[in-house]
Design goal:
The complex is a heterodimer of chains A (314) and B (249). Chain A contains 8 helices and 15 strands. In chain A, helix 3 crosses helix 4 and helix 5 packs parallel to helix 8. Chain A is globular. Chain B has 249 residues and is α/β, with parallel strands linked by helices. The longest helix of chain B has 15 residues. Classes of the chains: A alpha/beta (314), B alpha/beta (249). The interface between A and B is large, with 92 and 77 residues.
Chain lengths: 314, 249
Amino acid sequence: MPTLLVAEHDNKVLKDATHKAVTAAQGLASEIHVLVAGQNCRPVADAAAKLDGVAKVLLADGAPYEHQLAEPMAALIVSLAGPYEAIVAPATTAGKNYLPRVAALLDVMQISDISKVVGSDTFERLIYAGNAVQTVRSRDAKKVITVRTAAFQAAGEGGAAPVETVSAASDPGISAFVGEELSKSDRPELTSAKVIISGGRAMQSRENFTKYIEPVADKLGAAVGASRAAVDAGYAPNDWQVGQTGKVVAPELYIAVGISGAIQHLAGMKDSKVIVAINKDEEAPIFQVADYGLVADLYQALPELEQELGKLGR
Amino acid sequence: MKILVPVKRVVDKDIKIRVKADSSGVELANVKMSMNPFDEIAVEEAIRLKEAGKATEIIAVSIGPQQAGETIRTALAMGADRGILVKAEPPIEPLAVAKILKAIVEAEQPGLVIMGKQAIDDDCNQTGQMLAALLDWPQGTFASKLVIEGGDILVTREVDGGLQTVKLKGPAIVTTDLRLNEPRYASLPNIMKAKKKPIDEKTPDAYGVETKPRLEVLKTVEPPSRKAGVKVGSVAELVGKLKNEAGVL
């Protein structure tokens, strides 16, 4: 029986989280159908059709799905669930919002945020903020799964699956979108960036993020992240937060600046390929996970780093 | 309007957990336990709504062993009015918890359920959404702001790209994110007063809910550890190593 995978997108662009969830779903060893639910989102369905390993794309185009609110999304997914053995979504804030609703309606215990597919009913997932790894086997006939995208490579784009239109389910009509404040940035998104530079409480202000972190980010083509302490202090917006309760990332290069290395933060970035820590406290726990540690004052080190990168022609 | 606040007893957030040597789970014996931090935020938000005259009564519910009664007592000391303890031996999965909570909601008829977005032990992030589904209520998850406007509930949510605001037709479920509020500490007089507040004791059977886990935990192990690397002496050396040794520049 096939797997239904719900795509992450903004009605225009198919997000990289979908590519990674496809790789996870391939571990279930069954045919993958991708559901694209949104409004005026045909280009997203066409993009999903190109993903390697996707056999079919289902397109549900309608006003209730424009903002992927949990109530209409869950109604739609449940209406399509019949023939599927597994229902999968990336563990983004959208997937985390609607998928447990689907699971409850199907009387299934969801397997959240899996980091490895061991078999079609057996998975690894992190508990206690990444301090333990659990292997669980589902006894439910259907599996409902969210995927920790940082743990999987993105699927390639060489396919040409057919796109089929599916009809909208009835909208429960108990919720409505009012508005949103999305951060505007030309930088890559945190969860798909190849390079990330993050600042901690030692940044001391929002202005210092702009003055010291962002120029280095621009030289590296990096996304900017922050520790929970920096976000709580108001130095950085909430969607920059890297950590167990924020975003979980695994870039090629992660540079932690003025971040002590609380367990909560480490849980969100320790799968990065190369970790650099810049901190003036040589006892900071971040150095225990860093490949390269520099004990230095960030206000001197960052301008120097910008200069050195400039010498490389960046 | 009544507000129902489910609270979970978990290993204290400041304790570094230990995985048992036989891979059977996480060591819970003689470990400090506290209320799940996201649930504290939920209790605080309910109290603020009551103080603002938007709510009349706050009921704290916990599902767990006898000691979960202490977690309810903490909520009562913060300002909740009464408690319901559903005694059940852990592990009780989110789906079973949601079913028990549904039965309690049907009996108590609250206008709002506020709960943590996830528990810091199993990190599932499911129960609120599941309860909303079972009740056919709307959900406002990962809330950083909550406003009651007549029969509607406006929830500002922390989402991947920033913030999103939704309007829910009450009654509704709201799950809390970190920045909704800063929970208060219970004062000594309120801790004393809380001892006199009533806690009802129930069992899952009383609600006709089966709590047998659907997920079988095969093993629990330590995550692979990362080794500390080298210290570099200067920014120039760092950039050199990133370029020539690590090959990431």
